[in-house]
Write a structure and sequence with these properties.
Layout lengths: L1 H13 L6 H24 L10 H10 L1 H36 L3 H12 L4 H12 L3 H24 L4 H9 L4 H35 L9 H10 L3 H29 L4 H4 L3
């Protein structure tokens, strides 16, 4: 009976149209029902908390350990992820513009840049720790390496997306490379750039957390997951995972809103409204 009620409420919410908040309502209802059945099944079958703790235990662990989790959040997200994401995306964008302006660089820089996407994270993380130390700088370096190539490729594709007729029109007006870039090609590349920013936001978070497994000070979401799992304190492990998941979702939602503001004219954005 409860399962039927859950399905009916979610379907009823999904059928609502006209406002963006209805989509959030549907997702929220689905999430609440999922947590309810999780709690119900774990309690009914007496699942050991080492295997899968109940949501109530996770919430309790997060409430009791929020000072520690907040410190981990600052260490991983505000230092490692944010710094590495900004540097990696900025460097990828700058190199893409340089390659577009000087095509001969494509033969030399692009193959080298593609190597950054093939370097295994488990191999480069210990090296970054030896080079930059155990603090957040080594994790930021790993994030830079992971986010550089997606931004480079997406920006290059976006710069080539401007229509041939529009480029010829700019040429007929005697517009230089810089004028064409700012007035035509960068606006056309905005959806590609924001696509890379959204993908890199997730990659950056994953990269920083995994890099913390290979050496970290006494703070960080990856450090917390590793140490608490060794102690079999799984509710706090899941609490750190929840913090990471909420952070990633919030970053993605923020970038979606920025994309709608800066690329509102593009068909791919207008269709989402």
């Amino acid at each position: 009976m409860t399962l039927v009620l859950a399905g009916w409420t979610v379907r009823a919410a999904a059928a609502l149209e006209g406002r963006a908040i209805y989509g959030l309502l549907t997702a929220g209802l689905f999430g609440l029902w999922l947590l309810y059945f999780w709690q119900l099944l774990v309690t009914a079958f007496d699942v050991p908390r080492v295997l899968l703790p109940a949501p109530a235990l996770i919430v309790q662990a997060m409430a009791e350990g929020w000072p520690v989790l907040f410190k981990d959040f600052v260490q991983t997200v505000l230092k490692s992820v944010l710094t590495g994401w900004l540097l990696g995306c900025g460097l990828g964008f700058a190199v893409a513009v340089a390659i577009d302006r000087l095509p001969f660089l494509q033969r030399g820089l692009l193959p080298i840049a593609s190597l950054t996407s093939t370097v295994p994270l488990v191999g480069v993380a210990p090296i970054a720790v030896m080079w930059f130390g155990f603090d957040w700088q080594s994790k930021a370096a790993v994030v830079v390496l992971m986010t550089f190539f997606p931004m480079l490729v997406s920006t290059l594709a976006g710069l080539k997306a401007a229509g041939k007729l529009e480029r010829e029109l700019m040429y007929s007006y005697a517009a230089g490379y810089g004028q064409t870039l700012l007035a035509l090609r960068l606006p056309s590349a905005m959806p590609f750039i924001f696509g890379a920013l959204k993908v890199n936001a997730t990659l950056a978070l994953i990269g920083a957390i995994v890099a913390e497994f290979f050496g970290s000070p006494t703070a960080g979401l990856g450090f917390r997951i590793s140490t608490e799992a060794a102690k079999m304190h799984m509710p706090l492990v899941w609490g750190a995972i929840v913090v990471a998941a909420i952070t990633g979702s919030a970053a993605y939602a923020l970038l979606v809103q920025l994309e709608r503001r800066f690329a509102f004219w593009h068909p791919s954005v207008r269709s989402q409204k």
